[in-house]
Amino acid sequence: MKSLSPPPPPPPTPPNKIPDSKKTLIEITVVGKDRKGVVAEITNFIFKNHGNIEKINQNVIKGLFGMQLEASFNNIIKEKLDEGLQGLAKNLKMEIKVHYQEPNRLTNIAILVSNEDHCLLKILDSYNKKELKTKIPLIIGNSNSLKPIAEKYKIPFNLVDHKDQTEAERQILRLFEEYNIDMVILARYMRILTPNFVWRYPNKIINIHPSLLPAFPGAYAYVQAYERGAKIVGCTAHFVTEELDQGPIICQKSFTVLESDNIESIKNKGRKLESSTLLQAIKLALEGKLEVYWGKVHVKKIKSNKVNKYTKKNKI
């Protein structure tokens, strides 16, 4: 009787090649001067590399083209894909960035701040208590006012001067790339980001605005509400888009304005809600519960018998 020889060993897996059984999702952002054929070139590249387009969004503002695309692959070699996209970027004279979703890695969050500390303190306190499943490797401020807080929590703080908005955003984007940032939190960051910046992080930048949007957008929202005699005032956590304070709303909280209230008392009540509302939005995003389509945020239903602590009525 012939002895059975052992089966031959499987062929070696090429570096960075994903097994067939696993689907890899990548996010591609394209930004540059508007020109014909960009969408066709990018989508054709995806198809030629056996990818499937899951989502695509594009826009043009004042001659600036921006596109965000999600594509899935059953088999992919990162080096080959990166090299192909770099060549495409050169030919199209566009900036093309690729972000590979890594389900086993914690999300990296960058926090942008100005001078108000209440939202930052709320986030870092929750982070310190390990209530947030994330990493916060970077805090950026347009002043040094909140640097001591970052130092207290041992998180790198970077000052980025905004005398030149274009250069400031370049510096911030370089830091994001260095720290591999996935999500951006505007914790009362008092600067308006340009489309050139926002398009690079579609539905990944969360802002807290001191009004119940769409009412009272822009600056001095509490003053606007007080002068108009608003009876209910609140705040809104929303995704940032190229239109100021018009992004998809994640969550809102409110309080009743009393006859005895003045602008300062309204601001004080509002700040308490701002920090908790922003933290709620961050948790929902980190837990993968948020979906955006047709300009609206939908919160995925989670089967649980536990009472959602965020549905409790707020008392000021």
Provide a descriptive summary of the structure in words.
There is one protein chain. This protein has 8 helices and 13 strands. It is an alpha/beta fold and 316 residues long. It has 3 domains: 24-100, ACT domain (Alpha-Beta Plaits, 2-Layer Sandwich), CATH 3.30.70.260; 105-200, Formyl transferase, N-terminal domain (Rossmann fold), CATH 3.40.50.170; 202-316, Rossmann fold, CATH 3.40.50. A 7-stranded mixed β-sheet has the order 7-6-5-8-9-10-11, sandwiched between helices. It has a 4-stranded antiparallel β-sheet with strand order 2-3-1-4, covered by helices on one side. A two-stranded antiparallel sheet has the order 12-13. Helix 3 links the parallel strand 5 (107-113) and strand 6 (134-141). Helix 1 runs antiparallel to helix 2 and helix 3 packs parallel to helix 8 (263-286). Residues 11-21 and 305-316 have low confidence and may be disordered.
Keywords:
alpha/beta; Alpha-Beta Plaits; Rossmann fold; seven-stranded mixed beta sheet; four-stranded antiparallel beta sheet; disordered C terminus
Q: Which helices and strands appear, and what pairs or packs with what?
A:
Layout: E1 24-33, H1 38-48, E2 52-61, E3 64-73, H2 78-92, E4 95-100, E5 107-113, H3 118-128, E6 134-141, H4 147-152, E7 157-159, H5 165-178, E8 183-186, H6 195-198, E9 205-209, H7 221-227, E10 232-239, E11 249-256, H8 263-286, E12 290-293, E13 296-299
Parallel strand pairs: 5-6, 5-8, 6-7, 8-9
Antiparallel strand pairs: 1-3, 1-4, 2-3, 9-10, 10-11, 12-13
Helix pairs in contact: 1-2, 3-8
